[in-house]
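Intended use. Records like the one below are meant for learning the mapping from a protein sequence to its folded structure. Do not use them to infer anything beyond what is encoded.
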Amino acid sequence: MSVLWVHQDDEKHETVMRQLEKEEAETDFKFSLLLEGPQSNWLVGFRTVGDRLNWKESLTKAMRAAGKCKDPVKGTRTGRYDFSVKGRYEGRWKDGWMHKDGTLVTPNGTKFVGRWHCKHRCGFGTVETPTSSARQTAWQEGSDGQIVLYEKFKFWENTELRELDWQMILTGATVETKEKDVEIITQGKANTHLYKLLEGTLRIEKGLTPTSPKVVLTTLNPPVILGDTSVIASINQATASVIAHTSLVKLQVISISILNTLLRSDPGLSMRFFRAMALKLRAQLLRLHGPTKEELKEDDDDSSITDTSEEGGNSKRTKAPAKALSETQAQSSPPIQQKSQHESPAQKFHLPESEVMLKLVECTMKGVMKKLGRLYIFSNNVCFDSHVFGSSTKIVIEIFKITDIQQKKDILEIKTNKQKYLFSQVQEPETVFKLLNSLWTETRTRIQKGDKVNSQKLDKKSMASQTSLSTDSKPIEMEAEDWGMVLKDAKYKEYQNNEVVLKEGASSTSIFQIVSGRVCIQKQTADGIKKLGTMESEALFGEMSFLASGCATASIIAEGRVKIAVLEQTALYMLFVKNPHLAGRFYSYLANILALRLSERELQIQKYEIRKEKRKQRT
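Structure written out for the chain above:
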């Protein structure tokens, strides 16, 4: 049995029949069979009726077999399909389900236009019904196979924090009155309440340090909210003082721990609240201008300042001052994340300083979720460290506890009595295996001879102690399970030297983190391309554009080989639809990052102002 002739029909059956009649005039095709497919109609021509019957029976048998197959057809395509329940879909597909851009029209006339996701079986965009106009919303596949609206938390209709939200937040708040000059929030101290000004006037005061003389920055009148950013976990100290400026000030007051409880109970409110906090901090970062180039040059020229300590001694400071951000850098989307202090490899894993690092390579730890990171080989320990976005993993394997080591191509397998560790894409795998096997053999030989091998345990005393808090009073933060879901949808890309990671002016709604390597930040100016700085491993960028759905304000260029993790906005939105509580926690994560960056910039500028003040005193 063979197919003799096939004609694709994108128009109407009659058109094809007329075309077939012309073809039959020149050939022996006397019999046809019309097939209606998801994207087009097909007309098959045969010389005999027997050929047509055999072909139809074979095709019917194949269709029945395909209908029993549980696994969807793999691959991507663009096309149209009429579902028995959902309706007609036209757009892009992946692995047998709607994926990315597409339009679905249900039998009752409801029209879904937007983005779809084959794995999560959901989507978001606009929906229009025969009785209502188009509106933003989200949807998902129901248990019966139909596409249904998912509007429980109204993520897409109400992304802004509304007055109705503030009324809900302040439900149960107490009303307090303050006399003139009473301090409500103190600079440098933790704030534990959220305030709404009802009557009177407040003034904001700030000093270079919490103990230095303060200046009035501004005054505030009703209605205004204060202390809202204190809900963010990383903000544990107020950056300015709030003081009653008039004789009688009336405020609504609610405990932040009570607010956290409310936010946990309402994912939609939590998402809007932390998104509003992230946007507020983003605006503050863009407004925060550092000293001019001339001022920085003057500061560099006068970097050696003689200080008089409290004990009366003189000490000459020769360290160059911390460089404050210029206006161009302050407005740059890709920020630089600096670590608070430089840790030695041994300190990173809380090992004794006597531990010598022999080898450091990049690799991926395999498990439930792949984790890109680095493998550290010490004289007595094998350690792995991974930090991708907010997910951190640190593992210490003491060599004397290893029971077996295997290496196959770029995969390294390490076994202990309790666990098996699998590392793939190991750099210099043969060298690493030989070194590790040598250390392991030497350790076993020492044990067999009766030599005592000391356990290299983590120095728990050096780790920060955590205050025990109830679930409700703890800050709202991303949890391990959250990062598991997010990182499964993350993409990892590799760039070579001088390759463009992100181009200035390009639309960007993704968040990036450098897994390994270094990039430089470049900006086009009237004088040509200007290098603003560099970013290295664990640095995050792109979150400013992600929040505002804007364009990159600078270019990111790879310096050498660079690996970067990417979180796409569409993939995150799909996760929010399927896991509503994740939305608030993720925006809380972004707000924390921006709050830390704002604190670092303020500290840089503060140090510059202090040095500037000391220069004035000397002159």
